[in-house]
Design brief:
The chain is an alpha/beta fold. It contains 7 helices and 15 strands. The chain has a 5-stranded parallel sheet. The longest helix has 20 residues. The protein is elongated.
């Protein structure tokens, strides 16, 4: 699973350090960093984000005011030098609270907590909505064989039909449960639907799907489990 995240932090050095930490964690995908909560709000109108690293004390719009302005918010990890904001943050249902200066180990503990929270939420679902043409279509996980990349599009191969969408692989990875695994830059497969594996090729139905070196170790580790 990949977690799409953004940073909202108006201190340049603190933002730079946080970006370094995020880039060290393989399952975090940093989409943007902002110095202003107002700019972040504009971004969130058109982008799907699972996690926000949010500074509390900022000009124009504080982190708490930012949280209160959201009708529905993703997972939040607050960052601040002031411990007294912790209670208010947890009243607003944040996932964790990082008190500056914090270590990478403490940061990793916080993001692991978010990863586990999101994994449980995803595994409790049985479907997602996928935008195709001019409608949103419900796609049940049990019907997905594999997802194929085709330039700007992704083709969802299902037991009964195929669906074309502009949704990215990163977006799919953040929404699909653990039965799905990326095996190639152009393929995500449902492990449950694999018939056989030979010479780093996966057979699902009549299709032979290559396993690339980039994803090979993770894939074989997953099927051993």
């Amino acid at each position: 699973m990949t977690i799409n995240c953004i940073i909202i932090e108006d201190e340049p050095l603190a933002k730079e350090r946080l970006e370094e930490y995020v880039n060290k964690v393989s399952y975090l995908e940093l989409k943007e960093s902002f110095s202003s909560g107002l700019d972040a709000l504009k971004f969130l109108k058109d982008n799907i984000i699972e996690l926000i690293f949010l500074d509390v004390q900022m000009d124009e719009l504080s982190g708490i005011q930012f949280l209160e302005s959201l009708s529905k918010h993703p997972k939040i990890i607050l960052t601040t030098a002031f411990e007294e904001y912790a209670i208010k943050g947890f009243e607003l249902n944040v996932s964790d609270y990082l008190l500056k200066p914090y270590t990478f180990e403490r940061f990793l503990h916080a993001v692991d907590r978010v990863y586990n929270e999101l994994s449980k939420e995803i595994d409790s679902k049985d479907s997602i909505f996928v935008k195709t043409e001019y409608r949103l279509e419900r796609v049940c996980f049990k019907n997905i064989l594999f997802i194929e990349g085709m330039r700007d599009y992704r083709r969802i191969h299902m037991t009964d039909k195929k669906i074309m969408t502009l949704q990215t692989f990163t977006e799919f990875e953040s929404q699909l449960p653990k039965q799905f695994c990326r095996v190639h830059k152009s393929y995500i497969v449902s492990i449950d639907k694999i018939e056989s594996i030979e010479r780093d090729r996966i057979k699902i139905g009549e299709e032979l799907i290559p396993i690339s070196d980039t994803y090979k170790k993770e894939f074989y580790d997953r099927i051993k489990q």
